[in-house]
Each structure stands twice: as C-alpha cells, then as structure tokens.
Amino acid sequence: MARRFVAFLFLFLIATVLWQCARKGSPSGGPKDVTPPTLVKTEPEGMTTNFKAKRIRLYFDELIKLEDVQNQLIVSPPLKYQPDITPQGGASKYVEIKLKDTLRENTTYTLNFGQSVQDNNEGNPSAFLTYVFSTGDYIDSLQLTGAVRDAFNKKADDFISVMLYELDTAYTDSTIYKKPPNYITNTLDSAVIFRLKNLKEGKYKLFALKDAAKNNVFDQNADKIAFLQDTITLPTDSTYVLTLFKEVPNYSMAVPSFVAKNRIQFGYYGDASDVVIEPLTQLPDTVNTKILKERDKDTINFWFTPFEVDSIVFTVTNERFNVRDTFSVKSRKVGIDSLQLRPNQSGSLSFSDPFHIQANTPLTKIDTTKISMMDQDSLPVNYSAQLDTLLNHVSLDFPVEPNQSYQIDLLPGAITDFFGQVNDTTAYFLSTGSYADFGNLTFNINVDENAYPLIVQLTDEQGKVKREILATEPQAFEFNHLEPANYLVRVIFDANNNGKWDTGNYLKKLQPEKISYYPDIIEIRANWEKVETFTIRD
User: Fold this and answer.
1) What stretches of 266-412 show up as alpha helix (H) in DSSP?
2) Where is mean pLDDT largest: 59-68, 69-78, 113-122?
3) How far is it, in rounded angstroms, from Cα 135 to Cα 422?
4) Would you identify the CATH topology of the domain 341-433?
C-alpha cells in the first residue's frame, strides 16, 4: 500500500512539473514584433572598390525570408543575366547573391532590395536596403531625385522603372528600344518618388517605364513610357517629374479571318482612320458589301452577302502612312451572324443618358410606324427616332419625366439590317425615380482663360467616365440627376481642340495632353445640391 502511494505521489509531482513547464511555454500575449531585420555584416564589405567577387552575402541579426524579390531587387546598372539569390521559399540569417555576369570596368554598382528582405515571423521589411560596390578605384556618389505620375490615371502604377542613359557617342533616340540603361531604380509599390544614387558626373537622358517584360528596354506595344525633354547634367540640385503614358502603337494590320459566314474581321494596331479595304477577288454581282468599324475596339468588319468561295484576296491601304498590305483570307466552316438588338438601358432609365438600341449587324432602315411608346397610364408618348449608321444604333428621343414608367414596343420590321433581317416582336420596360432620389453638382474651375478648351469628366472612384462636358470658354459645369455615390473630377486640357485626350509619343517628342484631378473625393447624396471649386494654377 505504501509502495502504491509513493508511486502515485511520484506521478503527481511529474505531472505538476510538466504542467508548470507547459504554462511557461504558452504564448504570453506580449507586444507584436515590429522591428525589421538589421544588417550586421556583408561579404565583401559594402562600398568595396576594385570589386572582383562572384558571390555576395548579407548577414542579419535574425532569421529572414525573401518576398517578391524578382520585382523588388533592382541592380544598377542592369545585369544581362539575373543573379541567383537565396533563400527562396525558406528562412535564413543571410542573403546570398551569385553573380553570373562579367562586370563592367570602373563602374559603381548598386543592389537595391526594396522591401524584399523581411523578418521570418512578422514580415517586417528591411526597407531601403542597398549594397554598393565599384569595379574601379572609387565609389560614384552623385544623386538624382524625382517623382513619377500617370498621364491619365490619378494613381500611378506600381513598380515603375526609372532609367538614366549616359549621353555618350553611342547614344541615339532609339537606344531605349535596344539597350538597358546605365543606371536604374524602381518606385516600388507604395510611393511615386525615386532616387538614383551613386551616379557619376556627366550628361544624361531620363526615362521611366512600366516595363511589362522586365527586360529594361522599351516595347511600344506593351510598355508605358515617360521621358524628360531636356538633358540632365550631373551634379544637379533639381528635382524632376516624369509623366507616364501609353503610346498609340505604330500602325499595322493583323491577318484577317472569317469569323462568320457573312463577316471577315480585320484587327489592327495604331491609327486606322484612313484605312481602305478593297477585295481584289471578283465578287458576284449579287454580293453586297459594307465596312464598319467596331466601337471601342481595334477591329474593322467586312460584311458581305454570303456566297460559296474558297478564299478572298484583299488589299488594305493606309495612305496616311503610305502602307499597303495584301491578304488572302481562306473560308472556313463558321456560323452566320443574325440580327440581335440590345438596349443601352434596361429597368432604370437615366435622366441624362439618351436611350438607344444597339445592333450586332449593320443597320440600314427603321420604320417608325412599327415603333410605339406609352407611359404608365397607357397614354402614347411622342418620340423621335434616328438611325446612326456609324455607331450602328437606333436612338429614341423623348421627354423623360420623374416617377414614370415607359413601355417601348417594336413590331417585326421596325428595324432592318444589311442582310434584310428584321427584329422580332420586342418590348422594353423602363422606369424613372424621383428627382429627390438624385443629387446635383455644380463644379467651378478657376484657371487661366488661355487654358481652354477643357474636357471636364465626372468619374467613379475607379476612373470610369460617368458624365463629360466640353467647354471652349469659362462656365459653371452642371452635373444633374447624379446617382448617390463618390465621384472624382478629371480636367483634360484639350490643346488641339479635338474633343478627346491625346497621349504622347516619344520619338515625336510629344508629351501627353495635361490632366489635372480635383484632389478630393466628391460625395453626392440624394436630394443634395453641392458646389465645388477647383483652382488650377499650373
């Protein structure tokens, strides 16, 4: 009995000790670690001259991990081959960089890690971590600072490459298409400012790229670009602002194809406003043709009365650029496009946007005797109808009243397309709310009169245009019957008075048309009258 009691007591004491140990090992709920890793040593030492190493190690005071190092790490001047970097997908107390390139002579190199080096537990980044060395006898020490803005959007893109080219005897305007820069840095993901460091004295050209391929050269079809018109001479105390824009690509026509039995599609890049498409193949006399550009798409459709053919040969001429292409388009088994109608509004009817009916095939005729409208009291509504063959829609103009419902009836034959197809019996039901459900905005702009003409756009928070007003002289910009929401205001300085924003072109040395954003978000509430004033000084 005594022996059993002693054994029980021994087990009790062991359990107590283990419980106490478990308590000591449990989370204490202390303050969160917000301290980033500290660099304690580098091999070779930072700021080394006459550098000849092939491996670099950076040691830290705690376990670290690498996050998004492919985007964050910027090597200046750029390397032809990306270095091997560890750890990848694990934790370590050091970062190792293995260089694969033969380094340039007498050159200062900077490795900027951005925020890729983070502590392993909480992800605190070691911000602005850099490693600098020189293959020559000294470290270059000049700097260049500035900021990048987007020409059209209120917020600039993340990870913009800022590039500096030395104006030596080999530099030409086309260098940026073929050769990486002498110096490069990155705006990272949280700021638009940049700082190029460890530069040498000289004359330079400054660029920025949203570099889709991450190859440090400009691809017009994929990249946004910003360029500074003037030459930069270092040293300088000036701060520079770069405006990033997407160029209109150089004109080219894609290979056309049969997409339907009655339609051949011609895709293109660039400006195709002067393009002429002509069939070289002799078409039967019974075949009618029509050419129509798709709205908001870089596509031209060649419509034709279907007939049996193996292929059709076309010439496509753009006289503006003196370009002529010849294409042979082989027929294939595809369906036929039949008439389909789609209203631009359904259910709720806007007080400000005209109602229209869009078609997918070319429209040729409307018959208003087969179109009728009535309100909620079954009373007829007077309207006018117009066929727009360029936009390929039928617009209906009628007085839109508050707290009202409308029914639009289309009998067969109301709308006829290029192929003689007519609509089926169709009805559209629309209704309006009360004026009190909406808000009104009066927007005043204080700006030099010489700044006109202006295009004032009211957009949602994502930048999609909701309303637009063009003005050639000072006026109050009235935006009435607005849905309750948050809005932005974009002011375009329409320098060439063509009613739209025009982008820039690097080789032509054209900067994009200027845009100013009202700095605040404008909140519109139901039954509100709001007045805002925007003073633009530059």
Assistant:
1) none
2) 59-68
3) 77
4) Immunoglobulin-like (2.60.40)
